[in-house]
Amino acid sequence: MKLKYILLSGLICLGTALHAQVLPYKNSQLPIEDRVQDLIGRMTVEEKVGQLSKLLGWEMYVKDAAGIRVSDKLKDAVKKQHIGLLWATLRADPWTQKTLENGLSPEEAARATNAIQRYMVDSTRLGIPLLLSEEAPHGHMAIGATVFPTAIGQASTWNPDLIAQMARVIATETYAVGGKNGYGPVLDLARDPRWSRTEESYGEDPYLVGQMGKAMVKGFQGDVAGAEEKIIATLKHFVAYGVPEGGHNGGSVSVGERALLQSFLPPFEQAVKAGAGSIMTAYNSVDGVPCSSNPWLLDEILRQQWGFKGFVVSDLLSISGLTGSHATAEDAVDAAKQSIEAGLDVDLSGSGFGDNLLKAVKSGQVDMQYVDRAVARLLYQKFALGLFERPYVDEHLVVQKVATSEHTAMARQVAREAIVLLKNESNLLPLSKTLSRIAVIGPNAHNIYNQLGDYTAPQPEEKIKTVLEGVRAAVSTNTYVDYVKGCAIRDTSATDVASAVKAAELADVAIVVLGGSSARDFKTSYQATGAANVDSAAPSISDMESGEGFDRATLDLLGDQLPLLQAIVATGKPVVLVTIMGRPLILNWAAEHVPAIVNAWYPGQEGGIAIANVLFGDYNPAGRLPISVARSVGQLPVYYNHLKPKHHDYVEIDAKPLYAFGYGLSYTEFAYGNLQVAVIEGDDDFRCSIRFDVKNVGDRDGEEVAQIYVMDEVSSVVTPVKQLKRFSRQSIKKGDTQSFIFELTKEDLKLWGAGRKWKTEKGRFKVLVGPASDNTPLTGMFELEKDYIF
């Protein structure tokens, strides 16, 4: 009897081993395509449809005295919906109601994602791991993660190599706690700063945005698919989301085909060709067709023309928006049908596809091929990431991977390089570290959340370095640093200008820190999409005037900030204005009356130290504006590369912005010279070499951001008055000369012709070289003798 039992047990073991061997999708030695097809062939229609649902992840774990474990909500979602992805599992903020107390530390986060993946592997029929997507535009949006400057600040560095290094840090931290997909970069052109999400963008220019986006993708994903400490990027928001009419977030846009192809789509194309694994549709419509159900965008452009191999995910509830805000689908089933047939693969919410798509399939309204296509695209990324082989993370390594001293140093470097010196009359800056008394004044001088931006998790106070703390750390022990808040960003009920004036009168210099805030609070209500509700009748007024949902009708400093600044200037003491903000605010009065202005955007956790480094000369600023600063909302749009003709002045003011795209000062001076432009034409392409020298003629070492703009003198369709084509940030020691060499090809000068084909046309092109779009001391010319067709 015992022998029979042994033989039976052996046969069972052998059978199990043989069964495992005949499951090709579990065989990592097979091509990914074969594994995908094998797995799809084993899935039921319910499992396939469920695989396309991405639910809100922060509801899927429980943290209590007993420890961390999966929630009943996860078990129910897996059982009933067969879900394939989670979003923002580790997110913490007032919308999610996750705080420093009930949220997850990095070590707890790793335990939570391991528990979730273990449940998926061990307790489901096919053991398909979840893809965990996390917000990661300027650091992983999780407690304990390193917080970098927001994207508008990142773009101000004009240093894609640095941003790629930053992205590698974000990927490392996200991967360490179980995230395998980072939301970012945001590639929307921001050409209306009233739009609440300007801070999330890289600015107004397609070339600069494209270079930054490509750097983020490379940093996130690396060069080898599935490498450890790498995550796939999700490009946002496809497309033209950043130019809503009236600045209304998610509103309709008025953009033609040529503008889409030549300005709004190129940054996405650059990032796709850099290997981006995912892309998110925008809430808006384009020419009357919602982006989430637009086959021209999602199939013809994205896949057929660009060769995109990843998956397309909706923005939160955007499939439902077809029946709601857009009213282009008669019901939820129709919305699911339109979206999946157009090429949208994954539903962020779980309510757009789910039962609606299942009904559409079972009733014959949607062919199964569309579902299989979407599932294959998602599974391919899961296999490429190595999720089936490595579904878990090493909980013991988290402390070595998250918020390390090296990552903190990187956050400080990005913040320093992002700072833009807007004005420095009579060389007031840098300040002496041995001044007797300094007054630090303003609502953003010592408020940690006002310098972090939207999409930031709560962080321990001691982790964030404010301007006040930075100043105190920078000066000598004999310098007394006084601090007075003076006023809030918006609330005028507790303004104390008198105390601020007294502090300034006693000081040798006043550092006034003003601007805006994207700091969410637990008193604010939120929409289902996570955007904040603006409530002008609320009994208490938060500082928040920027961030998703907080669109502006004006761009003035709010509350009593300008009266505070005016009162400080009236003391006659030297004043330095530091702006911390998420969008370019109007600074006309300050530009006329304040001798020194430094802009830091939202500089992240190391912002205070970085700002102090600049104020006291430990770092020579070289940041450049990635977006124009308007004089008035009446000028909008005021981006530099508008189509011809040249703008004429208004009755009240001139047409030029207060500060132009590409502008930024230094503590040293640079001289441009020796421009050489040469063209060699070939059968299918040309090479235009542009060479020039920049000499540091000042008395400090510094960095210069040299910029090349091109103007097409005569073209078959209207082109911009000028367009950025190349740039480079280089260190130049005092007295030294640096040569800059660039090359242009037909790709750089192509246009969407009247015949609806791409071509680079023959003719004359003007080359403009200098440190800003409105300051190009070198001018050259070249001519093409023939057209180049694509």
TrEMBL record:
This protein's name: Beta-glucosidase
Keyword Signal in annotation: yes
Residue span, Fibronectin type III-like domain: 704-773
Pfam families in the cross-refs: Fn3-like (PF14310), Glyco_hydro_3 (PF00933), Glyco_hydro_3_C (PF01915)
Keywords from the named record: Glycosidase, Hydrolase, Signal
Single Gene Ontology MF annotation: beta-glucosidase activity
Family that this chain belongs to: Belongs to the glycosyl hydrolase 3 family.
Lineage of the species this protein comes from: Bacteria, Pseudomonadati, Bacteroidota, Sphingobacteriia, Sphingobacteriales
Organism of provenance: Sphingobacterium gobiense
Biological processes, Gene Ontology terms: glucan catabolic process
Signal peptide extent: 1-20
